[in-house]
Amino acid sequence: ALPIYVVKNKCKIVILSSSNNKKDIAKIVDNSHVIKFVTKPLTEKALEEVRDALSKKVK
User: Fold this and answer.
1) Signed CA dihedral, 36, 42, 46, 6: sign only
2) What pTM does this model have?
3) Is the distance from CB of 12 to CB of 33 less than 8 angstroms?
4) Using an 8 Å Cβ cutoff, are 29 and 53 in contact?
5) At 19, phi and psi to the nearest 5?
């Protein structure tokens, strides 16, 4: 089994939320595993940004 820190370091999280609460958003973007925060409604442009963020972080 892989040590937990190895697995954690490979996690990439994208969050889709309807929240516009500044405290919620601050907590989310401070998390190093969160690579993208997207607010609803989900748009084609947002999906492209998620794809781009994932392709940069996968390496």
Assistant:
1) positive
2) 0.68
3) yes
4) no
5) -75, 140
Find out whether 33 and 13 touch, Cβ atoms under 8 Å. yes
Domains of the chain, by residue range, sit at 4-57
pLDDT at 43 > cutoff 90: yes
Q: How many CB atoms lie within 10 A of CB 36?
A: 19
More confident residue, 3 or 14: 14
Residue 43 backbone phi and psi in degrees, to 5: -115, 165
pLDDT band at 54 (very low <50, low <70, confident <90, very high): confident
Spatial separation of the C-alpha atoms in residues 36 and 7, rounded to whole Å: 19
> At 14, which helix (H) or strand (E)?
strand 13-17
